[in-house]
Design goal:
Protein name: Photosynthesis system II assembly factor Ycf48/Hcf136-like domain-containing protein
Keywords: Photosynthesis, Photosystem II, Signal
CATH superfamily: YVTN repeat-like/Quinoprotein amine dehydrogenase
CATH topology: Methylamine Dehydrogenase, Chain H
Organism: Phaeodactylum tricornutum (strain CCAP 1055/1)
Number of helices: 2
Number of strands: 31
CATH class: Mainly Beta
GO biological process, one term: photosynthesis
Helix content: under 10%
Strand content: 35-45%
InterPro entries: PSII_CF48-like_dom, WD40/YVTN_repeat-like_dom_sf, Ycf48/Hcf136
Distance between the termini: 53 Å
Length: 408
């Protein structure tokens, strides 16, 4: 059944302001609950309380690590570099996202209500809470997406929760979201004063120009409606599409990339298009994650596959084609899944994955070598991120509260 995306209006007149407080790691509880009047949040089932990992979807990247044979030892080749160092944190929860609004000031979010602030460029972090959160409540919030621009920031969490600040995080307000949204909110990007762009698990893209009071749809229909309408398109697996997408990634100019929940095809969308365009993966292996080369769709796409494979497309990909031209990178993972890839500059590329493995390329992604920075720590790395606007600072985020800072 075709689902038409229309304007979704939400109002914040009843939003309560949240003032972050400092608190010790020992005083921090595993359960937090918003107490905004008139907005109830149901308790999660025990199965839903597991750490939720996202690059744009947490469950997707967790599956990369768990399905790729993490019981095997690290790659046997000798480590040739150690360009990252561990940063101590006041908690040990899985980390999901990190962002800065200046070279020195930023925030870090994660599972079980993990929320920390830095004022020295990330060298030290202090745990934060909100004054009107009840620490005795059993509900656990998983803050999974964080985005700042010019002092204005957004935090997206689960159960569905959207927080907004206009003063670099000194105070926060909760933004109510309509229950009529198709799918669950999965990502949000700060675009400027009172402006943000939000996506959902059904492929809806919304923009607000008034700090979340109203949201305007940018896509005419959900992804499952599009695929049902063009079921004869020849896209492998489209007939089995369940309606959800994972690993939504946005490039610097607003183009999007998403992977089907089964990993059997991917989709692209650019501003001005009415619908998402599906594409075949061009390989029998399951897609684990995808992203943009240097954050720009015009510079190409990268794709990781089950079994620790990494492929990179040519520049200026033709988004109307069914299959893209991907070239396999020379990376020896020993079967470890690759969860994320990021370009520090046109030549230096980093890939992270299961068992905290790290790999670096100095030729633009053609050949990778092993980096031993995460060797001494248990768990998995899920996210690697660089900030060219702030001196190219780099961060790798993982389970067990692991935060690595680029020092190379």
């Amino acid at each position: 059944m075709k689902f038409s995306l229309t304007l979704v209006a939400v109002f914040v007149s009843g939003s309560a302001a949240f003032v972050p407080n400092t608190f010790s790691a020992t005083a921090r509880t595993d359960a937090l609950r918003m107490t905004t009047p008139g907005y109830e949040i149901e308790s999660e089932s025990s199965g839903a309380r597991r750490a939720f990992v996202q690059t744009t979807s947490a469950a997707a990247v967790v599956s990369v690590a768990s399905a790729s044979g993490l019981v095997t030892p690290p790659p046997a080749e000798a480590a040739s570099s150690q360009l990252w160092s561990k940063v101590p944190l006041p908690f040990e929860d899985t980390l999901f996202d990190i962002d800065f609004d200046s070279p020195t000031h930023g925030y870090l979010v994660g599972a079980r209500g993990a929320f920390a602030e830095t004022n020295d460029g990330g060298k030290t972090w202090e745990a934060r809470s909100f004054s009107n959160l009840d620490p005795e409540e059993e509900v656990t919030y998983r803050f999974q997406v964080l985005s700042f621009k010019d002092g204005e920031g957004w935090v997206l969490g689960k159960p569905t929760l959207l927080l907004h600040t206009k003063d670099s995080g000194k105070t926060w307000e909760r933004i109510p979201l309509s229950p009529k949204l198709p799918g669950e909110p999965t990502a949000i990007v700060a675009l400027g004063p009172s402006r943000a762009e939000m996506t959902t698990s059904s492929g809806a893209v919304y923009v607000t120009d008034n700090a979340g009071r109203n949201w305007k749809a940018q896509v005419k229909e959900t992804i499952d409606a599009t695929l049902n309408r063009i079921s004869s398109s020849g896209v492998s697996g489209a007939s089995y599409f369940t309606g959800s997408i994972i690993n939504q990634v946005r490039d610097d100019l607003g183009a999007y990339l998403a992977v089907s929940s089964r990993g059997n095809f991917f989709l692209t969308w650019e501003p001005g298009q009415d619908f998402w365009i599906p594409h075949n993966r061009g390989t029998p292996r399951r897609i684990q994650n995808m992203g943009f080369v240097e954050g720009d769709i015009k510079k190409g796409l990268w794709m990781t596959l089950n079994g620790g494979k990494l492929f990179i497309s040519s520049e200026e990909p033709d988004l109307t084609k069914d299959v893209f031209d991907f070239q396999e990178a020379d990376i020896k993972t020993g079967g470890y899944g690759i969860t994320d890839v990021a370009w520090r500059n046109p030549k230096e590329v980093w890939a992270v994955g299961g068992s905290n493995t790290m790999y670096v390329s100095f030729d633009g992604g053609k050949k990778f070598q092993f980096d031993k920075s995460g060797n001494a720590y248990p768990g998995n790395l899920y996210n690697v991120k660089f900030f060219p606007q702030y001196g190219n600072a780099g961060w790798a985020l993982g389970s067990n509260g692991l935060l690595l800072r680029y020092t190379g």
